[in-house]
Amino acid sequence: MQKISSETNALNWFEIPAADIYRAKKFYEAILDIQLEEPTEMMGMHMSFFPYNPMSGKVSGGLVQGPMHSPSMDGSVIYLNANPAIQEVIDRVENAGGKILMPKTLINEEIGYMAFIADTEGNRIALHAGN
Known about the structure:
This protein is an alpha/beta fold. It has helices at about 20-30, 85-95, and strands at about 15, 40, 45-50, 60-65, 80, 100-110, 110-120, 125-130. Helix 1 (about 20-30) packs across helix 2.
């Protein structure tokens, strides 16, 4: 079995299920202050991609609306980058239609802070930042 080296990301891609791709896009753009790509159809699904540089080697992902993707508060949890200041992202959640499930919480000084939110689609999402 091939092992993942410390120079390789354990995570390659993430998909956040959406019941309404346009509503989800608006929510994540508002809270993270970013621009997602316009939704496109791919393999029978609607997808909107988070910003990424394919040459960077960093993980990216997208929002997905399709028959195999159902929003849930019970599935796997992904942590979105809320740097440089997690509280600024948290402060935008409710105005964008989401809900704060767990406020900014210190993990430890070395790792930083986390928070849990519910998005407009019914997913539980985590945020992480150094401060």
